[in-house]
Design brief:
heterodimer, A: 607 residues, mainly alpha, three-stranded antiparallel beta sheet, two-stranded antiparallel sheet, 23 helices, 70% helix, B: 458 residues, 74% helix, 2% strand, globular
Chain lengths: 607, 458
């Protein structure tokens, strides 16, 4: 039975060991990471929740709640697949030793966040994770340098607002332990409650990419090293969601804020609306993207919105749905980014319209991506369907039809934008330059296959995940989601995943039987095509991928850009700085002037 | 014995006038001697009455728990400078004189003696700032510094006129509070000019960015540190505690403006100068917030000062040598630069992190909600431009234009040790905190100071 502290120490040692081993042979580093992740999974899988421990002599800093367990397991699964994938991918990394060491350090920071009950310890681990990922991001493409600045500034805004809130709480209650604070905070005056909760949530909002702090995701996730985008999108934003879930469930939000709409309190309502806008912004911006990684980065914004909406309803079905969506999006985003990493590994580009027809050369990668987007779009029998269904259910049962509309439009939109890379990269015409592209190495295929299997497995047999989730709900005093075997029960009806799967399977078998019995079509090469009797010399032009959704993008072409708005704030601040600099370059008599001014001012005040 | 701290450097300085070539060796030896003396032989509390004149009539040198850590740190910094910086031989004499003057200012208990040392420090500072053909900036600094000196002199003289003695302790004992305040204002302005609080610190960007490995390093670390000591001694111990609300406001405004100005800069030198100004302003704001006797706040401010001084040292030495070139061939410099940047921003686990946390804790306990907000907002801006410079310097495309520049071994050693020290203190903050707590607990204790100086009585 491992202790939490020993796990943290192993990860810290692992960082150093990983660094030095990577100097010897760069493939050793990811092996260390993979080994640590598997060890972590093994240790935490059976660990009982509700354990409080001390860290390096400080009492009561670590606490292993059900929420910690759930999110740690999600994180470790993502990191295990990432580590295994990297064993092969690391040959393309620019600074492999630093990359490996910092990856393990990121894992350390994240796990530490999940273990902390002491808010300063949480802040320390949070910043460690940010710091480690901060130095990995510029190892990507050329534009990743600018992206790093976005990352650190917006992350700092969130973390420092959080820190200010933590100190305000400490000032009032004399403790940094969030569970102790929760017991006393109900009696605080309204202004204080609002301020503190919003400040604490700010870090979670900044990290999970919710509007209005969503602008960094596109640049950072899109330009980071390819496999690390999987960690950024599949796991680090979940750290933000963890903070939101923690604040919403530990602090008695329901009693702290007045009820606003049909059982939903006003703070939750505001958060739900932020989620709505995130879904809208994420979906619409994703449809426009030509770079496949930036596209999925925007999808992370939208899915962060889903998670926030689910969590904020604080209701039996909705909260469980939000938590389930965390694991679904983690798996799906990891699958998608790993498949992209495999494609980029072989083709060397991230632009959708420069690829095409890769299904013929990389079938396993294709299947991974396909199952990933099916899960994201929320189609049974993948696990993505269950979480989306639960969120829909809870919104409808509360009568929140406007939000329901946003969520539904987001869902349809998600299918639109995930189809773009599918059609542009995998289907369609194989380009001439990609004729000799091979499938990804077997080491890369294994984690992709495992993730695919997990998505389908948990879509059909969600009991394991639901067990974790209901433990979380029970621990926080919420009514747990009801399920029995494969039957999920809500107030509006039941859903049997096994029945649905059987239906799909039967349909699949019937189709397979027909395919086998019926006469086969003739297989012709891709180039054997005609158009209006003309012979095509350059088959690359056959591929429809450029400006894929032009008809839709035209509708919202002149939209305001939040990125530009933030940049204009930066410019305004810069010009203020320019003014100060101007003052500094003046003549000596100007200095005399300033001295006289300050002297007069101080004398005036004293008199 | 403590007079040796001033006398030995002074003597050797005169000796090296005749043998300028030996400066390279005499300077480190002198600072090493000082350090050995301080760590091994001389301990607080000691009083020396120069010329055996009683304290009231003569000059008194005092070593107590407040200036002992400052002395060690200043001499350590000067030793580090002697090893790492590159300077012309003839400057060596000046630097040894500077050593004497800094030690003197830290030890003295007499207003006019302090003025003498202040002027010596300023004179050396002007000459240093004229390095690398930076004469106009040095001239502007001279004007500003002359005003500072004059104001201080008027303040000291008015003290003498009222109290009949130039001894700091006795003047503080006998003078009325209002009188002390007015004289104090004059001295305050003088110190604010040296401490680079905007708008009185407008000279700093031009002077610090001259690209020499000597000027900003010494001005930004050793001299700033000494000035902060002198400020604390005057306004917490002797004249104080004084309500310094206006200085608080001025320092906060200075902090914001300095960070904004740093954000705008395109050259590393000016960015770092504004960074130094911002750091000094933060410490000044914290000092003024805790001026009424808040020991915890002063202790936290001192830890922040320590972090800032070391950081400024490392950053400016690296800038002085590399002058904006990248870290591709200078990994050690790059690592030191990045570690120090991380400490300045306040990422765990570095000295800067503990400084920030302690400062925030103390500020909130004191009921101050404004400075923490400003501090954190400024930290966001600082994180932005520091990371930008780090990324730009690490990932620069080396066009292989000119010769490759390397840091000399001494500089590499020093910057790496200093950067690692910040990380080590991040893991064990009590190493420095013990000292800052001691300073903070003694600095408000006027009675002990007075009794020590006038141990014989009047």
């Amino acid at each position: 039975m491992q202790s939490l502290q020993s796990l943290i120490i192993y990860l810290a040692l692992g960082t150093l060991i990983g660094y030095f081993l990577s100097k010897i042979n760069k493939h050793l580093g990811p092996i260390v990471l993979f080994a640590l992740s598997i060890f972590g999974l093994y240790a935490l899988w059976g660990m009982p929740t509700g354990v409080t421990e001390s860290l390096f002599g400080f009492e009561g800093v670590l606490k292993f709640t059900a929420l910690s367990k759930y999110l740690s397991i999600v994180t470790l699964i993502v990191f295990a697949c990432y580590g295994f994938f990297n064993i092969s991918w690391i040959s393309k990394a620019k600074h492999p030793a630093a990359f490996n060491a910092l990856s393990i350090l990121t894992l350390l920071g994240t796990i530490g966040v999940f273990f902390s009950a002491h808010l300063i310890a949480l802040y320390i681990f949070w910043e460690i994770a940010v710091l480690a990922s901060l130095f990995i991001v510029p190892m990507g493409k050329e534009e990743s340098k600018k992206a790093t600045i976005w990352y650190v500034v917006i992350s700092s805004i969130g973390s420092y607002l959080f820190l200010y809130g933590v100190f305000m709480l400490h000032e009032h209650y004399g403790t940094f332990d969030i569970f102790e604070i929760a017991q006393n905070i109900q009696n605080a005056p309204a202004g204080f409650r609002w301020t503190v909760v919003l400040l604490l949530l700010a870090a979670g909002i900044a990290k999970s990419g919710i509007f209005p702090l969503h602008v960094w995701l596109r640049n950072v996730h899109g330009n980071a090293p390819d496999t690390f985008s999987a960690v950024l999108s599949g796991q680090l934003v979940k750290m933000g969601s963890y903070l939101i879930a923690l604040v919403l469930s530990v602090l008695p939000i329901v009693t702290m804020f007045a009820e606003f709409y049909n059982g939903v309190n006003i703070l939750s309502y505001i958060l739900i609306w932020l989620g709505n806008i995130s879904i809208l912004v994420g979906t619409l911006m994703a449809i426009k993207q030509n770079d496949m990684k930036m596209l999925i980065a925007y999808s992370t914004v939208a899915n962060g919105g889903y998670i926030l909406i689910g969590l904020a309803t604080l209701d039996q079905v909705g909260y469980a749905g939000g938590l389930f969506h965390i694991i679904n999006h983690a798996l799906a985003a990891t699958m998608i980014f790993l498949s992209f990493a495999a494609v980029i590994y072989r083709t060397g580009t991230t632009k959708i319209d420069e690829m095409g027809g890769l299904i013929h050369r990389m079938p396993v990668t294709f299947v991974t991506y396909l199952v990933g987007i099916i899960s994201l779009a929320g189609i049974p029998p993948t696990s993505g369907f269950i979480s989306k269904w639960m969120i829909f259910q809870s919104l409808v049962s509360k009568g929140m039809f406007v939000t329901q509309m946003f969520v539904f439009v987001g869902s349809i939109g998600s299918f639109l934008y995930v189809f773009r890379p599918l059609a542009g990269v995998f289907l369609g015409q194989l380009k001439n330059k990609d004729k000799n592209v091979k499938e990804a190495p077997i080491v890369m295929q294994i984690p992709m296959i495992i993730l695919t299997a997990l998505t389908v497995l948990w879509g059909v047999f969600p009991q394991q995940v639901l067990g974790w989730i209901t433990d979380v709900q029970k621990e926080f005093g919420m009514k747990p989601f009801e399920f029995e075997g494969t039957v999920l029960k809500t107030s509006m009806g039941d859903w049997d995943t096994w029945t649905v799967f059987v239906m799909f399977a039967v349909g699949f078998i019937i189709a397979a039987v027909i395919y086998v019995l019926m006469p086969k079509g003739k297989k012709i090469p891709l180039e054997d095509q005609y158009t209006s009797g003309e012979f095509i010399h350059n088959y690359d032009l056959y591929h429809y991928a450029t400006k894929f959704y032009a008809f839709l993008e035209r509708e919202y072409e002149g939209h305001p850009s939040f990125e530009d708005w933030y940049l204009s704030i930066v410019n305004a601040l810069r010009s203020l700085g320019k003014f100060i600099d101007y003052l500094a370059r003046r003549t000596a008599s100007a200095y005399l002037f300033w001295t006289a001014v300050v002297l007069a001012l101080i004398m005036l005040v004293r008199w | 014995m403590i007079t040796l701290l001033v006398a030995v450097p002074l003597a050797f300085a005169f000796a090296t006038v005749a043998f300028p070539k030996l400066n390279k060796y005499v300077f480190p030896l002198v600072t090493l001697f000082n350090l050995t003396l301080l760590i091994g032989y001389v301990h607080p509390t000691q009083v020396v009455e120069v010329g055996k004149w009683p304290a009231l009539y003569g000059i008194v040198l005092l070593l107590d728990n407040v200036n002992y850590p400052f002395l060690i740190l200043v001499n350590l910094i000067l030793l580090a400078v002697s090893i790492s910086a590159t300077f012309q031989d003839k400057l060596g004499t000046l630097l040894i004189v500077l050593t004497a003057a800094l030690n003197g200012l830290l030890l003295t208990g007499d207003f006019f003696n302090a003025f003498v040392f202040l002027e010596i420090i300023s004179a050396v500072a002007y000459i240093l700032s004229a390095q690398n053909k930076n004469s106009y900036a040095a001239f502007k600094y001279l004007i500003f510094g002359a005003i500072a000196g004059t104001l201080y002199l008027i303040g000291a003289v008015s003290m003498y006129v009222y109290a009949g003695t130039l001894n700091m302790g006795y003047a503080g004992f006998i003078a009325s509070h209002e009188y002390l305040e007015i004289a104090g204002i004059l001295m305050l302005i003088a110190l604010l000019i040296e401490l680079k609080v905007l708008p009185l610190g407008l000279w700093a960007p031009d002077v610090y960015s001259n690209g020499s490995t000597l000027t900003p390093v010494i001005l930004g670390s050793a001299i700033t540190l000494t000035m902060f000591y002198f400020y604390a001694r005057l306004f917490f111990n002797i004249i104080g505690p004084v309500n310094t609300n206006l200085v608080y406001v001025l320092a906060i405004v200075s902090l914001i403006f300095a960070q904004l100005a740093a954000m705008k800069q395109r050259t590393l030198g000016r960015t770092l100068s504004y960074l130094a100004i911002a750091g000094a302003s933060t410490v000044m704001a914290a000092f003024s917030a805790g001026a009424m006797g808040d020991e915890k706040l002063i202790s936290a401010a001192l830890l922040y000062l320590f972090n800032d001084i070391i950081a400024v040292f490392v950053l400016f030495i690296i800038f002085g040598y590399l002058n904006g070139k990248g870290f591709k061939d200078n990994t050690v410099a790059g690592i030191a630069f990045s570690l120090v940047s991380i400490s300045l921003i306040g990422f765990p686990l570095t000295a800067g992190f503990w400084a920030k946390i302690n400062l925030l804790t103390a500020l909130f306990e004191a009921g101050d909600y404004i400075l923490p907000a400003v501090l954190l907002a400024a930290a966001v801006i600082q994180a932005g431009y520091l990371i930008k410079w780090n990324v730009d310097l690490w990932y620069v495309d080396n066009d292989s234009e000119t010769e490759e520049i390397y840091l000399p071994f001494g500089a590499q050693l020093v910057v790496l040790l200093f950067a690692l020290a910040l990380v080590v203190i991040g893991f064990m903050p009590d190493l420095i905190k013990a000292y800052t707590d001691k300073i903070a607990s003694h600095i408000f204790d006027f009675k002990t100071y007075f009794d020590t100086i006038l141990k014989g009585g009047m």
